[in-house]
Amino acid sequence: MGFRLALVTGATSGIGRALVELLRAQQLCVLATGRNIQALEELKKIGAEVLAHDLTQGSKPVLQIIEQRVPDLVIHAAGFGYYGVTTQQTLPLAYQMLQVHVQAALEITLAAAETLQKHQQQGVILHLSSFAADLPTPGMAMYGASKACLTHLCQSLDFELAPQGIRVLVTCPGMVVTPFVTRAAQRPFQHGAFVMSAQQAAEKIWKQINKRKTKTIIDWKYKILHLLLPFIPNFWLSQIFWRNVSKR
After folding, report:
1. In total, how many domains does the chain have?
2. What pTM did the predictor assign?
3. What residues make up the domain containing 100?
4. In angstroms, rounded to a whole number, what is the distance separating the alpha carbons of residues 146 and 80?
5. Could you point out which of 13, 44, 115, 118 has its C-alpha 20 to 30 Å from the C-alpha of 196?
6. For position 163, which CATH number holds?
7. What is the pLDDT of residues 138-159, one digit of tens each?
8. Strand order in the sheet with 123-128
9. Residue 180 has pLDDT above 60, yes or no
């Protein structure tokens, strides 16, 4: 099935921006939302329609666009993280993360599904989660918890809505070269070797969308690790994750 209109949140950087560029290269009509006004202006130059909005402030403008324009491909790529001991972080920051990763994701999914049902259309709703959703994540506790909620939500909603031709997919990237890590660490970060680019991640996500696969771990290294998870004690996983985050 081809798509009539795609809506992408978090479109001004990282995987979200790479997806907008990929979708426009596929000649799809794209509505891009994000906070960075300058980046939105750049996306307008490649033919995307844009909406400036910060999802930490609520979802209403995005929900209104969904109801008005009825996109049949919705990609929720907005998200952020932070590193550090959870008790040293502020509650407002934690609430913002829950707002973007969980509340906005749920509101966007339900609005998109209900609008497609109303217009008797099929479609795909895809969320960017994280491989961290399947692990204990000390040093990123709220991030891992919010992404775990998102991953489980998507898998359940996909089962419920698939009979109506509405799919709810979830992608779990590993380490990808985006501004995410620099923002989370609040300092420059040097990525190691064999790290996926945002463009490579976008291409794999596009394949997932076309195959209608419910959940995809897009990096082969993390696929192997996922197979080993049942055999690794949580304490060891926590130690490994903590050491990894502490280096960022």
Report:
1. 1
2. 0.89
3. 5-246
4. 11
5. 44
6. 3.40.50.720
7. 988 999 999 999 999 999 999 9
8. 49-52, 29-34, 5-9, 73-76, 123-128, 166-172, 215-217
9. no
